[in-house]
Design brief:
Blueprint: E1 17-19, H1 23-29, H2 32-35, H3 38-41, E2 51-58, E3 69-70, E4 76-81, H4 82-85, E5 96-101, H5 112-126, H6 128-131, E6 139-147, E7 172-174, H7 187-204
Parallel strand pairs: 1-7
Antiparallel strand pairs: 2-5, 2-6, 3-4, 4-5
Length: 223
């Protein structure tokens, strides 16, 4: 385990291991002998795409909608006002927008200033009543988060490259939205993959008879 904030690295041994790494990191860090196994080798067909998230704190309310919104913008795909949708950011007077800039392949190498300028230009089109005119809302602070390799590219043929949560390594399991479950790369898929990995472990190593199987979930594909 890599030490954090200057702490020494540490080796931890366990009976079971679950990887929650993204597919690109998993491909790099897996042991070389595993890379020769067909189960892991097929993951070479999965490759993450760049994604940019933006967090913008405004000096007033921009929206009053309590759910995720799809954008009419060419570069801003989805957004939400976290001051309404998330209790941790709750603010009755000011908005905190979280947005996804995608596709991001043409933006991932650009500066934060360039990304913010393009974002604000798009937001002015989406919220002209708040961001244009004599007294527009102002950004109090912002954060640009770049992920060079995020969810895998959902191109034709990729489904066959997705591994199950159960691997040929008897005490090693996979979790992550790239693993085989009903959704494509997404937060929902990541959560479901974790549940499927936990279900596979409790099935293989039952602690009691109280285990409740997941309902309406896609079974893991046999290794």
């Amino acid at each position: 385990m890599r030490g954090i904030n200057g702490q020494p690295d540490e080796t931890i041994e366990a009976d079971l291991y679950v990887s929650a790494m993204s597919v690109d990191v998993m491909k790099v860090l897996m042991p070389q002998p595993w890379k020769e196994m067909q189960f892991f080798k097929k993951m070479e067909g999965l490759e993450g795409v760049p994604v940019i998230n933006l967090h913008l704190w405004f000096d007033r309310k921009i929206t009053d909608i309590d759910h995720l919104l799809f954008s009419r913008s060419d570069i801003l795909s989805v957004y939400a006002d976290m001051s309404i949708t998330c209790k941790d950011y709750e603010d009755p007077d000011r908005s905190m927008l979280e947005l996804v800039l995608a596709p991001a392949k043409d933006w991932i190498d650009k500066s934060e200033a360039e990304i913010m300028a393009a974002t604000m230009q798009e937001l002015e089109r989406l919220f002209p009543q708040h961001l244009t005119g004599e007294n527009p809302a102002k950004v109090r602070k912002y954060k640009v988060v770049k992920t060079p390799r995020s969810v895998y590219t959902s191109s034709p043929g990729r489904q066959a490259c997705r591994p199950s949560q159960v691997t040929p390594i008897s005490n090693f399991y996979l979790a992550g939205s790239y693993t085989m479950q009903r959704y494509l790369g997404s937060m929902e898929g990541a959560v479901l993959s974790g549940k499927l990995a936990a279900q596979a472990i409790t099935t293989a190593y039952p602690l009691s008879n109280a285990a409740i199987p997941l309902q309406s979930s896609t079974p893991a594909v046999p290794a």
